[in-house]
């Protein structure tokens, strides 16, 4: 199990990933213009995250919820865990399609949908929900198992740069200055750190907090991977079929890391 200081360090690294994504677009030197590598990074992150959910997170969750139970009691426990997973998934769906309906993940944004200030900040607010639960996911994973934490950390870090780039692009598309765009990436990064600290503080007061946080955060992660990242990959596939192949590379990367860390 990792301590508070370790969780803070990993949360800070994730936050810096968001800020780096913003710097790629909003810094004075802005090295990224065609952003081709970000399309591949999105696909890689999608495959890695899906593999993490179904190969590592869900088996771990079911093991925790069914520990010491058999038969109908075990089945009822699994139902409880799956209900929390569904709740996490539906929460982000609700946020994206009601609170922040103009938010879209990925490098491409729609400037015509982001002209009103209320829509701009709702979009950043919706993205902040994502990043808060990124922090919840990484902290929960490290509290479960150190190896597990590393795998989830890599999975989340893979989509941190596109997240930061998205926040910056929303602001710039709405006519905001590069400085404001960078502030937006810092905000979403800070919410990641807040998610880490929230779980860390809660864990010190309630040992079972991780049992409930893990399936819920898995549902949030599943939404990001399956409903945000994969559709973006499918969109890019129309122009470059190789992008979809990179999803499988992400799955393979997770499996290799899983085996290496396990051994």
The poorly predicted ranges are 107-115
Domain count: the total is: 1
List the quaternary state of the chains. single chain
Annotation, overall tally of beta strands:
0
Number of helices: 9
Q: What does the largest sheet look like?
A: none
Structure class: mainly alpha
Distance between the termini: 18 Å
| Computed CA radius of gyration, to the nearest angstrom | 18 Å
Order of helices and strands: HHHHHHHHH
Strand content: under 5%
Helix content: over 70%
**Mean pLDDT across all residues, rounded?**
80
Shape: globular
Can you describe this structure in just a few lines?
This protein has nine helices and no strands.
Report on this model:
The chain is mainly α. Helix content is 81%, strand content 0%. It has helices spanning 4-26, 36-65, 71-99, 117-144, 146-157, 160-173, 178-205, 209-237, 242-262. α4 packs antiparallel against α5 and α5 packs antiparallel against α9 (242-262). The longest helix is centred in the first third of the chain and has 30 residues, at 36-65.
